[in-house]
Amino acid sequence: xxxxxxxxxxxxxxxxxxxxxxxxxxxxxxxxxxxxxxxxxxxxxxxxxxxxxxxxxxxxxxxxxxxxxxxxxxxxxxxxxxxxxxxxxxxxxxxxxxxxxxxxxxxxxxxxxxxxxxxxxxxxxxxxxxxxxxxxxxxxxxxxxxxxxxxxxxxxxxxxxxxxxxxxxxxxxxxxxxxxxxxxxxxxxxxxxxxxxxxxxxxxxxxxxxxxxxxxxxxxxxxxxxxxxxxxxxxxxxxxxxxxxxxxxxxxxxxxxxxxxxxxxxxxxxxxxxxxxxxxxxxxxxxx
Length: 288
Fold this sequence. Notes:
The N and C termini lie far apart (84 Å). The chain is mainly beta. The protein has a six-stranded antiparallel beta barrel. Helix content is 11%, strand content 57%. It has two domains: 1-103, no CATH class; 136-281, lipopolysaccharide transport protein A fold (Sandwich), CATH 2.60.450. It is elongated and about 75 Å long. It has helices at 4-18, 26-34, 36-42; strands at 45-48, 53-56, 61-72, 75-88, 94-109, 114-124, 129-133, 137-141, 144-148, 151-155, 160-171, 174-187, 193-207, 211-221, 226-237, 240-250, 255-259, 277-280.
């Protein structure tokens, strides 16, 4: 096992943060089979570990341990231990297939407010999948903050991310909550990948300064500040409450529309003889 493989291995976790991957670059793929160090030269990598770096040929792993700080391009990774896993690939050549970060994992960008916090991180090159787990899971992307109890997961090949376990997304005064949140990424006007849409599943709650909406399923379009809810929908405002099976909410204008079923065929809002129910509260009289 050549220690130069370690330098190439550590950059994999950074590429998760940057929305890139080794498989997306044919040049990097070619370099990976020839000389891992050459691939790293395109994106310089600096690694500091208090306890050093150890490569074990028999186990096919390289380990950096002790307050690890690794810088790759515009991204910095901090963790207690970083492990690169190798295997025999085509033509019996050694290839990297997985990178693991353990303990106090923080990945951040030096040019934008993109930060991820976890206790454990795992990146698998075969399916371009990154998984963050452990206590105090949090992802901050510009003005959007996402937290979860079970896991944060990102798939580069599909451009989607999941927050699992009482997941919450907050942007300014807007909050979206569900047992699972599914975020879709797409290029913005600057050509950078950004969250465009968030789906929420089970025990869904969407709130603003003026209202709280709940349902079985939610769909939020970030740029349009528009959300729909389906299944057992309830919208509560200071002056009353509306119940139905489908709702459209314009979050920036505080305008809501509730129907007895979705205008598009959906099993979530299909209930027989279901009516929209409205409860209007009387104005409270001012004390004399």
